[in-house]
Specification:
- By secondary structure, this protein is α/β, with parallel strands linked by helices.
- 39% of the residues lie in helices and 16% in strands.
- Strands 6-5-4-3-2-1-7-8-9 form a nine-stranded mixed β-sheet, with helices on both faces.
- Helix 8 links the parallel strand 7 and strand 8.
- Helix 7 runs parallel beside helix 8.
- The protein is globular and about 45 Å long.
Length: 247
């Protein structure tokens, strides 16, 4: 999705959640300063070299989803690319799976992402108005290949291909990088482990946006997007009669 198409969605999100754009800009400027020189060169191209033409499994962190059973994917050709959404990187590593790409705003188990980055995962660090402290703490500790992203128009080395939460942003990254197909594992837009009622409502509102945004991409994007269910079946994303929880 081009930024001109994405911008109206984010403007609506920012109004709903009260995100001041000035804070987004400050966090983005900080990320840009902290990124190593290698991260400033051709970010879109480096992502495409990992994902273009490949089947991508985007791994979310739905409660009790566990790691994706990639051994079930026995199609000929190269193995699928694994795109982990933030904390799902730890789930993958626990199962011996090193993600190809990790999309993170650094609010999950970041130490696992550092380990995956050291082992070859490309980490896409997303800066937003609420995570400047985490950006300052963790970006200098990431030893491997990085790409920076933020919530505004592409600026310098920072990209914005769409997406709001780590999960749907991972899907947008895979689509923008030319993935042939996208298989969603560990996505549940109606389940959250937040115990505080206010935090739970906010989290569910964000998940509702994630569900909507992936549906937009499924209807208008270039990549085929499917949900991978625990029984092994694969159904087109957005088919409300057949998609079920991956918990």
């Amino acid at each position: 999705m081009e930024y001109s198409e994405w911008a109206p969605f984010y403007a609506e999100i920012a109004r709903e959640f009260g995100f001041p754009f000035e804070r987004e800009e400050r966090s983005a400027a900080l990320l840009e300063r902290l990124l190593p020189s290698s991260a400033l060169v051709d970010p879109r191209g480096r992502l495409a070299r990992r994902l273009a033409g490949r089947d991508a499994v985007v791994v979310g962190l739905a409660p009790r989803a566990g790691p994706p059973p990639i051994w079930r994917l026995s199609a000929p050709g190269p193995p699928p690319a694994i795109v982990a959404a933030d904390g799902a990187a730890a789930t993958c590593l626990d199962a011996g799976i090193v993600p190809t790409v990790i999309a993170t705003d650094l609010d999950g188990p970041v130490a696992a992402e550092v380990g995956a980055n050291r082992r070859g995962s490309l980490v896409v660090v997303h800066a937003h108005g609420d995570n400047a402290t985490a950006v300052e703490e963790w970006v200098p500790q990431l030893p491997g290949e990085l790409v920076g992203s933020w919530a505004g128009p592409p600026r310098g080395p920072l990209i914005d291909v769409g997406g709001f939460t780590d999960g749907d942003r991972a899907v947008y990254l895979a689509e923008a990088s030319g993935a042939r197909s996208i298989l969603l594992w560990g996505f549940d837009f109606r389940a959250t482990e937040e115990s505080d009622p206010a935090a739970r409502r906010r989290k569910l509102s964000k998940l509702a946006w994630a569900e909507r945004l992936i549906r937009v991409l499924a209807s208008a994007g270039r990549s085929r997007i499917e949900t991978w269910r625990k029984d092994g079946s694969r159904v087109p994303y957005g088919d409300e009669r057949t998609v079920e929880s991956t918990r």
